[in-house]
């Protein structure tokens, strides 16, 4: 089921649909995180945080 969903391209639409929402929520919860992460220089921490 999951493999078929990924192959059908559903993952792309799901990612595109959730990206703006997740970004908005992340910015609301931690508005200063982007600046602090830039100081640390760890892009992976920004993606996982």
From TrEMBL:
Transmembrane segments: 6-26
Keyword flag Transmembrane: yes
Alphabetically ordered keywords of this record: Membrane, Transmembrane, Transmembrane helix
Organism superkingdom: Eukaryota
Name of this protein: Acyl-CoA synthetase long chain family member 6
Organism field: Homo sapiens (Human)
Name of the coding gene: ACSL6
